[in-house]
What we know:
This protein has about 290 residues and is an alpha/beta fold. About 35% of the residues lie in helices and about 30% in strands. It is built from eleven helices and eleven strands. One iron/sulfur cluster binds near residues 69, 109, 110, 113 and 114.
Amino acid sequence: MKELVVISGKGGTGKTSITASFAVLSKNSVVADCDVDAADLFLVLNPKMITSGKFISGKKASIISEKCLSCGKCFYLCKFDAVSYDDLTGKYVICDTACEGCGVCAAFCPAGAISFTERECGEWFISKTSHGTMVHARLKIGAENSGKLVSLVRKIAREEGVKEKAEKIIVDGPPGIGCPVIASVTGSDAVFAVTEPSLSGKHDLERVSELVGHFNLPLFACVNKWDVNPEITLEIEKFCVKKGIFFCGKIPYDKNVTKAQIEGKSVVEYDESPAAREISKIWGNLCGKIL
Ligand code: SF4
Ligand code: SF4
């Protein structure tokens, strides 16, 4: 079972549209949406949820007001300014989002008035789509640790893949090069970068190439909407040759991509459009090389 991670240096490059098309073109795969901060693959693949679970990460403190003596010790001890005094009620309160879960207040409260419980940061789901199993997640607003949730989604996807004897795991990775991206590519088999034909797109690909190089993984790339700027596209192709990145193809600007999105379909399902043809060709190139 091979795991391919689709990433892009930033959002809005068409990464999710392309991943959804790969999911449709692949005949025996599990899809994992690891863009947990802005998951939107479900809009195209229309999953029906089968199982879900809570994503627990770290702990949080809260004051049991009936037990609290209003001594203020927690207020003075908290290094994260998570405790405040409410003038109206005359009670101390802990701000859920500011609490870092260090546990100091709970350890020193003289009245045992602080509960220190697991923090629920989101949910994960296993769903069925008409193109196979999909694992996805939702991070709670303001919750951190999206890297951990990415790792959890990949782990569940692999378990599902093993159960189903899938040939591939296709991961829609987060944009950028931060912690969630590192969590997406670590231990995978190959990375596919979607970039756009602009100077910032080229720069993003350079950063992605450096990151993937650290993990010693094969990197594949394509340019989306290449005909918007053929000169930069050529520069990107040359960069790929220089860096040993396998350039899989270039997708033209195509209004059918937006139309497909509006109808909640992948590009390759929507029409025999130029973009759909090129995505199919790119998928063929990828399969020939790694899958
Ligand atoms: S340390 Fe305990 S008793 Fe004192 S204000 Fe905080 S919660 Fe209340
Ligand atoms: S657990 Fe730590 S961060 Fe949270 S309120 Fe208590 S002292 Fe502050």
